[in-house]
Structure formats: structure tokens, C-alpha cells
Design a protein that fits this description.
Blueprint (H helix, E strand, L loop, with lengths): L1 H17 L3 H12 L4 H7 L8 H38 L18 H15 L3 E2 L5 E3 H4 L11 H4 L11 E3 L5 H9 L4 E10 L11 E11 L4 H16 L5 E8 L2 E10 L16 E10 L1 H6 L8 E8 H9 L5 H4 L3 H4 L3
Helix pairs in contact: 1-2, 1-4, 2-4, 5-11
The protein binds 3,4-dihydroxyphenylalanine.
Length: 341
């Protein structure tokens, strides 16, 4: 039995040595130490030994077992190290290879200016309202004191959807005023940015789709002075403390009195040049005190409340902000242009 144990030890150790992968090593373990393994079957025959021999052979068998176990553990760690080595080699990284550039997006110049406008107004306590681009003529015109047959319905050259001219692409963001006043009670302080549509030919200053930001304030004791202060704040916050505005009387059906507001030409500072077509001033918005008929139509008591409203062209604000001379650049999506902002 002594001899048998010696043979088992020798053959198992060489089998362990030769195992090329964890699977083979496990097979060796089972062959020697498993339930039907050769060492196990030797141990099962211990009963046949004499009382003197049993402890001696028992100790020898234990030594053989632990020699095999140690050899297996040793081999297992060699194999896993070798495997790791192989993996590291095959997955080698060259950190000196130039990286692939990641193109990050940028904000469109109009989004930059709109975000600033929204910041300025939310800072003054306004909230932002939205309205549909496909609008009822009722909201775009009638409720804004622009009745059927009013020339505005033609001169604005509207895109109509229906024969009876009842549904259209909104020509202004002003209908959002009505939607707000029909659902909210004063005090009201909202701005409403969005797209508007008119049948205009594309040129350096026109597009059939452009953007406005509407503003509406309704509260007790609101005056034209509040309107002027608010719009001057907007212009100075956007363009700096030196920016000048000019208020001119005008007519809009939904405001009384109405005005147009210009800012001083950024190119010539009021002298008159190509950019301002010799005027020295550039028109940016329409505004006024909300017409009592409009307020009353929305159920607001004009003995208690008054309000002002304005609608400003976002393209013009943006063009002035970045000295862009042609509006088409804003819509052509040429990355060489847009990447500059
Ligand atoms: N909606 C007008 C336009 O598109 C601009 C405007 C004028 C808006 C007066 C207003 C306002 O809110 O009070 O020309």
C-alpha cells in the first residue's frame, strides 16, 4: 500500500504539472481525490490493515492528499495568472493614439438670446405661457379687436387652413394673450415665445416663419410708464446700459394707445447707415396698453384692472445681439456659421 501511495503521489503530481487549463486541472482533481478517485479508493481499503500499520499508512495517505491539494492550488493560481497575462496582452491599449473628436452640440444663436430674454423676465416675476401655432381666427384676430373685414386680416397675408378663414397659422403670438386671460385672473405677468407665420418672400429681413416673444401684464394701476420701464430694462439687460430706445406712436387694434419701439442702430449709433437703411434706428417691437374691449372680452373688469402688452421679434433681437446682417443665416443651418456662437 505504501508503494501504491507513492505511485499515486508521483503520477498525480505529474498530471497536475501537465494540466494546461482549469478544466484539465479539475479533471485531475476528480481522478485522484474525487469520490471514485484513486486516492479515495486506497483510503477505503484502510480497514484491511493491521492495527500497527493503520496509523502509519493513514499518516502517509494524509501527506499524499495534502501534497496533491497543495499542488492543485499552486497550479490553479499559475493558470489564472497566465490567463490574466494573456488577456492583458490581447487587450493592450495604446494611450498615445490620438482620440476621436467628440462633436458637442451648441446652442443656436436664437436660443441663446431667447434663454436670456426668458431669464430677464422670469427674474421680474413673469411666467412663460405657450399657445398653439395652428390657431383659430377668433383668437388670432377677433378677440384681439380685429373684426371680420378688418384690413389686418389681409395685410398680414395669412396662411389659412379653411375656406371660411376660421383656422390659420398664427400671424403673431398675441392670441396667447387671450388664452392666458381666459384662463387666469389678474395679476398676470407672462411672456410667450413662439413661431409665427406670414406669406412673406424670403430676403435679408423677411421669412414666412419667424419668432416673436409676446408679453402681457394685467394688474391694478398698470400704466404706459410700466411698459416703458419694462422694455428699457429688457434692452439694457440684453445690450448694455448704453443701449437707447425710441417709442413712436402707432396703431394696433388690440392696444390703445399703441406704440412701436426702436433701438438705436448698433452699427452707426443713430447716424444712419446701410444696416438701419439711413434711419439711425431699427424697429424691434409693437406694444401698448391692452384695449379695454380686449380685457372685457376676457371677463376682466376695466374699472379695476389695466394692462400693457408687447410683441418683440426674436430674429431682430438676435441679429442685433451678434451683429448678423442677414436673417437667412439664422435658418440655413450652416454649421460653419452656427459653430461661431
Ligand atoms: N402682434 C403685433 C405684430 O405682430 C405686435 C404687437 C403689438 C404685440 C402690440 C402686442 C402689442 O402685444 O400690444 O405686429
Amino acid at each position: 500500500m505504501r508503494k501504491l501511495l507513492g505511485e499515486i503521489k508521483a503520477s498525480s503530481l505529474s498530471a497536475i504539472e501537465e494540466a494546461a487549463d482549469p478544466g484539465a486541472l479539475e479533471a485531475v482533481r476528480v481522478a485522484y481525490l474525487g469520490k471514485k478517485g484513486s486516492l479515495t479508493s486506497v483510503l477505503k481499503q484502510m480497514g484491511k490493515l493491521s492495527a500497527e500499520e493503520r496509523p502509519v499508512i493513514g499518516q502517509l495517505a494524509n501527506e499524499v492528499r495534502s501534497a496533491i491539494e497543495d499542488a492543485i492550488a499552486e497550479k490553479a493560481s499559475q493558470l489564472s495568472e497566465a490567463l490574466l497575462e494573456l488577456k492583458l496582452k490581447s487587450e493592450k491599449l495604446d494611450v498615445t493614439i490620438p482620440g476621436k473628436p467628440v462633436n458637442t452640440g451648441k446652442k443656436h444663436p436664437m436660443s441663446i438670446v431667447l434663454d436670456e430674454v426668458v431669464d430677464i423676465f422670469t427674474g421680474m416675476g413673469y411666467s412663460v405661457a405657450e399657445g398653439p401655432e395652428v390657431e383659430f381666427a377668433d383668437y388670432n384676430f377677433t378677440k384681439l379687436n380685429t373684426s371680420a373685414g378688418h384690413p389686418a386680416r389681409e395685410w398680414q397675408d395669412t396662411f389659412y387652413f379653411t375656406e371660411d378663414s376660421s383656422v390659420l397659422l398664427r400671424t403673431q403670438t398675441s392670441p396667447v394673450q387671450i388664452r392666458v386671460m381666459e384662463t387666469q385672473r389678474p395679476p398676470i405677468r407672462v411672456i410667450s415665445p413662439g413661431r409665427v407665420y406670414r406669406k412673406d418672400e424670403v430676403d435679408a429681413t423677411h421669412s414666412p416663419m419667424f419668432h416673436q416673444v409676446e408679453g402681457l401684464v394685467v394688474d391694478k394701476g398698470i400704466t404706459m410708464g410700466d411698459l416703458k420701464g419694462t422694455l428699457n430694462t429688457l434692452v439694457k439687460r440684453l445690450y448694455g446700459p448704453d443701449a437707447q430706445t425710441r417709442f413712436r406712436p402707432h396703431h394696433f387694434p388690440f392696444t390703445e394707445p399703441s406704440c412701436e419701439v426702436d433701438f438705436q442702430c448698433f452699427e452707426c449709433r443713430g447716424q444712419g447707415c446701410r444696416v438701419c437703411k439711413g434711419e439711425g434706428w431699427i424697429e424691434i417691437l409693437g406694444a401698448g396698453m391692452v384695449h379695454p374691449k380686449v380685457l372685457e372680452g376676457c371677463g376682466i373688469d376695466t374699472d379695476v384692472y389695466s394692462g400693457f402688452a408687447f410683441g418683440v421679434g426674436l430674429e431682430r433681437l438676435t441679429m442685433r445681439r451678434f451683429n448678423i446682417s442677414d436673417m437667412r443665416l439664422l435658418f440655413e443651418n450652416d454649421m460653419r456659421f452656427l459653430g461661431q456662437f
